[in-house]
Amino acid sequence: MLGTQPGSDWERYFLMQHYGIPTRLLDWSEGGLLALHFALISNNGRSDAAVWVLDPFWLNGEVAQRIPGLLPDVVKRLGTLLPEADDPRDRDLLRLYLGEAFPQRRARLPDFPIALQPPHIDRRIAAQLSSFTIHGRDPMGLEHLAESNRRPRLAKITIPRGSIGRMREQLLDAGITEATVYPDLYGLALELTRLNARGPISRFTRARPIRRVPLRRIP
Predict the structure, then answer these.
(1) For labelling, which of 102, 137, 200, 201 has a CA lying 20 to 30 Å from the CA of 7?
(2) How far apart are CA 166 and CA 195, in angstroms?
(3) Within its chain, how far is the Cα of 77 from the centroid?
């Protein structure tokens, strides 16, 4: 169920990602427990799980220096403030990544992704404390940027497979359930299915599961 009707291509693009349509967006969460939920809920216990942590301000500061034509004050601001789709100061930068949601011809995109903050126009986006990275020409741009940096602020937290069942129960005790992550009938149906299932369930019935990880600034 939508909250506010989307009023721009960016808002439509955010909703497309959240409801299973392929985009160049990658979902992140600012909530550590929410990220852990997405990492564990569909894991079958036969392999380790993982949560990835990203400093979005580091990412944007590094990428901004590699985009030709950005003014120095824009580069400086991107290291301390995430761009927003409805902020006129970010319009020129974001137009490089999404000139229009359904382009008629292929656009020349920047190589590396940037992190951005979406408006909470949908209950899912708000409940999941969602943020995004939007990726450009290189689908492995985030990995390639981290590999080329001496001190990348991108970290992997591995969760041993033997701990997954217990941690999943602890998340439920903390109130992190499908119905809180998806505050609609879909989430309730997922939770009822899990309560009556013998093993882990998929987070999506039709769309491919999306890994979600905490997005926060690292001091």
Answers:
(1) 137
(2) 15
(3) 21
Asked, for residue 200, whether it belongs to a domain, the answer is: no
Give the per-residue pLDDT at 71. 85
User: Average pLDDT for residues 131-158, to the nearest whole number?
Assistant: 93
Domain holding 78, by residue range, is 9-195
Is 215 exposed, middle or buried, given 0-12, 13-18 or 19+ CB atoms closer than 10 A?
A: buried
Domain assignment of residue 31, yes or no: yes
Count of domains observed in the chain: 1
**Are 74 and 64 within 8 A, CB to CB?**
yes
pLDDT, tens only, 157-186: 999 999 998 998 899 899 999 999 999 888
Question: Does 208 map to a domain?
Answer: no
Reported residue count of the chain is 219
Does residue 111 fall inside a structural domain?
yes
d(CA 93, CA 144): 21
> Which 3 state secondary structure label does DSSP give 97?
helix
Q: Residue 200: its pLDDT value, please?
A: 60
pLDDT band at 103 (very low <50, low <70, confident <90, very high): confident
